[in-house]
Structures are given as C-alpha cells and as structure tokens.
C-alpha cells in the first residue's frame, strides 16, 4: 500500500510527533512497509488455530480469590511521615 507524504504528516500530527518536512518521505515509506506487512499477515490461514497466550502450553499459577483486610495497615502507615488514627494525615488544602 502506498502512503503519500500528506498522509504521513497527518498521522504524525495525530500522534503528536514532530516530523521535519524532509523526513516525511522516509516516514511515508516506513508506513507503507508496515501496512504491506499487515496485508501479508491477513493472507495467513488461521482457520482452526486456537488463540495462544504463550508458546509453552502452561497455565499461570493462581491464588484463591479471598477478600481480606490486608492486615498490613501498621506496616504501611509506618512509612508515612504523619499518620493518625490508622489513616494518612495530610495538610488541609481547601478552606
């Protein structure tokens, strides 16, 4: 697929990337190569192929989904510069 420099400039603007005018032809060529590769991938027959998460067929270890209080409030608050009554104390910012 052929991408012109105007399209490359528009894509760069949408991506908030500053591209010099002299670099636009090279960028347009790169975009064209990327789209060509995507077209090649679309030609691959994937009928009957299961989606994979990894190249090795193993499940991730899972832990029990249990609701807990965390039991670490004292440990967490020990790092705070100022803690009162089990909460972080912060300066008042709204009058």
What sort of overall outline do the alpha carbons produce when their principal axes are compared?
A: flat
Structural class: mainly alpha
What level of helicity do the residues show?
Answer: 25-40%
| Beta-strand content | under 5%
Q: For the residues shown, what is the average pLDDT? A: 89
Beta strand count: 2
- Radius of gyration (CA) equals 27 Å
Q: SSE order, as H and E?
A: HHHEE
Would you identify the regions where 5 or more consecutive residues have pLDDT less than 50?
A: none
Largest sheet: 2 strands, antiparallel
Strand order of the largest sheet: 1-2
Quote the distance from N terminus to C terminus. Answer: 60 Å
Determine the number of helices (DSSP H or I, runs of at least 4 residues). Answer: 3
């Amino acid at each position: 697929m052929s991408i012109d420099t105007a399209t490359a400039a528009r894509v760069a603007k949408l991506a908030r990337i500053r591209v010099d005018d002299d670099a636009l032809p090279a960028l347009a060529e790169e975009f064209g190569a990327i789209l060509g590769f995507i077209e090649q991938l679309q030609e691959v027959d994937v009928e009957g192929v299961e989606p994979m998460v990894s190249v090795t067929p193993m499940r991730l270890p899972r832990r029990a989904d249990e609701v807990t209080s965390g039991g670490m409030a004292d440990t967490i608050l020990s790092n705070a510069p100022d803690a009162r009554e089990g909460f972080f104390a912060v300066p008042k910012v709204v009058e």
